[in-house]
Write a structure and sequence with these properties.
This protein is an alpha/beta fold. The chain has two domains: 2-76, Rossmann fold (3-Layer(aba) Sandwich), CATH 3.40.50.10580; 78-108, no CATH class. The protein is 45% helix and 20% strand. The protein has six helices and four strands. A four-stranded parallel beta sheet has the order 2-1-3-4. It is elongated, with a radius of gyration of 16 Å. It starts with a strand and ends in a 6-residue tail after the last helix. The model has no long low-confidence stretch (mean pLDDT 84).
């Protein structure tokens, strides 16, 4: 079984480096088309979907996934969303991630 990620072009490289199967969508309509196509695949165990492209992928796939256990659809926040929470401050976002990971705040 495989793990696939549906994301934008900016985030795709990181997922590829992690060895995941990546599908890049250029906008919402493209993402919706690819989402439905991926949900029907029999070889996927997990389908991670960037919330910057599709906010609630589970509800959109309710009909396609009815009666099926796989793939599990996992929405994840996009970097754009994370930066928006920090007021478009990438340094603040990274500082918060580092503090949550190692327990110390660093100065960037």
């Amino acid at each position: 079984m495989k793990i696939a990620v549906l994301t934008d072009s900016e985030s795709a490289s990181g997922f590829r480096l992690a060895g995941l199967e990546v599908h890049v969508a250029e906008g919402r309509e493209d993402a919706l088309s690819k989402l439905k196509e991926l949900a029907l695949r029999e070889d996927l165990a997990l389908l991670a979907v960037d919330q910057g492209l599709i906010e609630d992928p589970q509800s959109l796939l309710a009909r396609e996934l009815r009666g099926r256990a796989l793939p599990v659809v996992l929405p994840f926040p996009s970097l754009g969303f994370a930066f928006a929470e920090e007021g478009a401050n990438a340094r603040g976002y990274i500082r918060r991630l580092v503090k949550a990971t190692i327990g110390y705040e660093i100065k960037l």
